[in-house]
Structure formats: C-alpha cells, structure tokens
Amino acid sequence: MQIMRTADEHFTDLPEFPYAAMYCDVSDQDGGTLRVAWVEDGPADADPVLMLHGEPSWSFLYRQMIPILVAAGHRVICPDLVGFGRSDKPTRIEDHTYARHVEWMRSLVFDVLDLRRVTLVGQDWGGLIGLRLAAEHPDRFARIVVANTGLPTGDLQMPEIWWRFREAIQGAPEIQVGRFVEAGCLRPMTDAVRAAYDAPFPEEDYKVGPRAMPGLIPTAPDNPASHANRTAWKVLSDSATPMLVAFSDSDPITGAMAGIFAGQMRGAQGIDHPVIANAGHFLQEDAGGELAAAIVRFLSRTP
C-alpha cells in the first residue's frame, strides 16, 4: 500500500489546539504498516473517553471539548482516522474499506493503547466505526455517546442532501475540506479554523480519504458492510451499556437517527437526552462546549 504523510510543518500554530501528536504503527491489512496519530490529555489512570471524528474532519474538531472533559477528571483520547489529520494517507480509493477502518481503529485502541472501561463518543464516521467496535468488543466499553451519527445497513434510504454531498466530494476536481466542514456548521467559522481543517491536506493527492469515505457507506442491503452493521445494531439494541443520544437540532444528514437510537437502544432508556441547540452536522465545532458539558453530566450520572 502506497501512502502519503503530511509534514509536521502544516500543523504549526493551530488555533486552540496545542496538543502534540502521539504515533504508533498498525498493520495496513496489505502486508505493510500505517502510522496512526492521536492526541490525549488528562489523568493517565482515569477511565478513557475515546472521541472519534468523522468525514472530512480530524481530531482538531474536538479542541473545544478536550479541556472541559479533562477539567472534570477524565482521560481524553482523540485519534485521527487513517487518511485524515496526522495519520498516514493511503493513495488509492480502493485502499479504503469499512472493514479496514474498523480494524485500524481496533488495533490502535486495543492492541496499542489497551483501553478498557471506555466511553465512546462517535460523530459521523466516528460513530460508524466506533459503534462497530462497541458491539464487537462489549467488554471494553462502559458507556456510549452517539452524536449526529448512525449505523447504516442499506435497508433505509440516505437523505437527498447526503447524496449531493457524496457527488460533490467524489466528483469535484478540487476539494476545499475546510469549506466542506464550514458548510456543515451553523455558526461562523474564522479563516484560521478553516485553514486548520485544510492543514492535513496540502495538495489534492492527500485527499483520497475524504473522497473515499462516502462510497463506503452501505446504501444497499447487500453492501459488504451491511451484515456486520446489522449484527452490531442487534447487539447494541440488546445491550445495557448506558447510551447518551446527543444530537444537534439542525443536522439534515443524521438528524432522524436521534429518535431511533433513543427509542430502540436498551441502554438509552431512562436517560435524559439533550438536543444541542443552534448546531449543524459538526456540532463539536458549532457547540463543543455544550456537547462536552452534556457528556460530563452523563459520566457523572453513570459512574
């Protein structure tokens, strides 16, 4: 597998993101290795809060939330998915599969970091990957937070706005990643923040991950990932693991999933699920403080 690696110089002077990257090597599932990056903060002996980002962002997305969770005494770990952030970037669309992304994160979280009693926070692809991990390794997870995400099986139609996003990001001759993130927000974004979302992708050749991910979403029942996702949904539906459903009020892509999670997941019953106001798809960017505060309350009520 051929890879590209964004030079460190592109990650200097990031606004509100002073965290030095940590690195490890995992199998690329193709005979080689990939370098995967993550940032972490908080007490090393505290139970971990694993926060997984989605498409086309990176761990920078969680910069408003990390200090709040750390101040409440939690250890926070934010990886960069392969193809994003400071992690290595495979150069071919076909290098990316749903199964590989699950395995790459599994290897980091369990083989390298050996995380236990994990609280998962998953948004967008962070949920698609993280919920698979939670279902397939239930003994490792103490709590789950779903935030503007899903676990698609191809049995339900994706919304029209998602199809337009997929067409745009797959077909555009040039992708402005920061602009895509900004389009998924309601609140104003500064030039410096937009540039930080662009930082991992200095040239078009680095953007294979963002182009690949929409094509990995199961949109038909016979998709290669559909069976595994159906199995995971059944496991999670029956699980007593506490689940917080913390969706925003203005996400046209995943908004309909909030009621489904809250209604169908056993672990979500009896929990006060917040609606994060004045926030779009990237609610961490729009309302990271509000989301982090809701998670802190959830953690305190489910010790």
UniProtKB/TrEMBL annotation:
Example of a GO MF term: epoxide hydrolase activity
Keywords attached to this entry: Hydrolase
Pfam families: Abhydrolase_1
Keyword Hydrolase (UniProt): yes
Top-rank taxon: Bacteria
AB hydrolase-1 domain segment(s): 48-285
Keyword Hydrolase: yes
InterPro entries assigned to the protein according to its UniProt record, in alphabetical order: AB_hydrolase_1, AB_hydrolase_fold, Epox_hydrolase-like, Haloalkane_dehalogenase
Name of protein: Haloalkane dehalogenase
Protein species of origin: Mycolicibacterium moriokaense
